[in-house]
Write a structure and sequence with these properties.
heterotrimer; A mainly alpha (about 90); B mainly alpha (about 160); C mainly alpha (about 110); A: about 90 residues; mainly alpha; about 0% strand; flat; C: mainly alpha
């Protein structure tokens, strides 16, 4: 038990030191570095997709393939839950 | 789980249609205001979970079997993929938005800048919102219903 | 460092979730730790897409001005739904383990052999 306890404390300390160091090197809140892709989407989303909502046009039109993958994950989770709690006929 | 008292049953029967209409409004106006398929589906599923908590899982599972709900969820997933394949037939790309610019169903292009909302815009987006909305409603409701019935003490066989 | 206060909140959430996942022996507490880590990651994704004095990226009766980025908001939507699906599967497995073993202690579950 002692080896496992020391290993977990070492892992936790490494992750905490990583977070402290990287919070000094990250960019300030509200000033991102590059914004070319999002500027293109904000300007052209009313001509190409015809929607007034920028987020819906990204979710369903510019990146519709990610929504297809997410629908598959939701379907697999529902199938797994029904499979675990099925009622077997034991007679 | 057992059911609750008469006051709780009356009030939740009154509040259930209003929550469902609000959730369907959020799904249908997904291309104009913040919202869409996933958010509206979560609102309607939480209204259905309120009915499950109030009336008990034993009464609810005699009214709605889980087989019909899983057929409804598969219908939502199949219609989402069928809409994506229709874009392949009428254009040349998967997920092509072929209703923008034409005058069939949802094909008005809004002028640029700040406009007043017009529901006739959007192309293929409102149809995909409905498909994903039905899928999320059925999926979340069947998860809550199966887990509530299986952990109660009304089952005959023991596992 | 004082300019990026949301990143300190993200680090606090992830470290709390990691502490609950490593140092606790009850299965339900470990599931709560995994959920805390997911909430921290979702918050980090949203704070990456903000410009100073910007409004939501929606054109319906908008007052005008610069708009925030729409892409990190779309990725966070997908991540939240996947988190719900994984949480449902984890809780079903915990219920099944409790019915089979009778206890929820992680050290005892590893030792019993049937």
């Amino acid at each position: 038990m002692d080896k496992r306890n020391i290993a977990s404390v070492i892992v936790f300390t490494i992750v905490a030191i990583f977070f402290v160091i990287s919070s000094l090197l990250i960019h300030p809140f509200g000033m991102p570095d590059e914004s070319e892709m999002d500027d293109y989407i904000i300007e052209n989303t009313q001509e190409e997709t015809g929607a007034n909502n920028g987020v819906t046009s990204v979710v369903f039109d510019y990146r519709g393939f990610d929504t297809l993958g997410e629908a598959t994950v939701l379907f697999t989770a529902v199938a797994g839950v029904i499979l675990i709690f099925r009622r077997l006929k034991n007679d | 789980m057992t059911e609750m008292s008469r006051i709780v049953r009356t009030i939740s029967s009154i509040a259930f249609p209003f929550s469902m209409i609000f959730g369907l409004y959020v799904i249908a106006h997904g291309h104009l205001t913040p919202g869409g398929g996933f958010q509206g589906g979560a609102i309607v599923a939480s209204a259905c979970a309120m009915i499950l908590v109030t009336f008990g899982s034993k009464w609810t599972i005699t009214k709605i079997k889980e087989k019909k709900l899983s057929i409804l969820e598969s219908l939502g997933a199949i219609s989402f993929i069928a809409l994506a394949f229709l874009g392949l037939i009428f254009g040349a790309v998967f997920f092509n938005n072929f209703l923008v610019g034409t005058d069939y169903l949802f094909g008005v292009i809004p002028p640029t800048g700040s406009v007043i909302a017009d529901i006739n815009t959007g192309g293929l987006l409102p149809l995909m919102n409905f498909a994903v909305g039905i899928k999320v409603i059925a999926g979340l409701f069947v998860i809550v219903l199966v887990m509530a019935y299986a952990t109660s003490s009304f089952r005959e066989e023991n596992k | 460092m004082i300019y990026n206060i949301p990143y300190i909140a993200v680090a606090a959430l992830i470290l709390l979730g990691l502490y609950a996942l490593i140092f606790k022996r009850n299965l339900i507490k470990m599931v709560i730790g995994i959920t805390l880590i997911e909430s921290g990651v979702n918050l980090f994704l949203i704070t990456l897409g903000y410009r100073k004095d910007s409004i939501a990226p929606i054109y319906t009766s908008s007052p005008g001005g610069t708009m925030a980025f729409p892409i990190p908001q779309a990725l966070t939507l997908t991540s939240i739904v996947i988190g719900v699906a994984v949480l449902a599967l984890m809780l079903s497995l915990v219920v099944h383990i409790y019915r089979h073993y009778g206890t929820l202690d992680v050290k005892k579950i590893r030792r019993l052999k049937e």
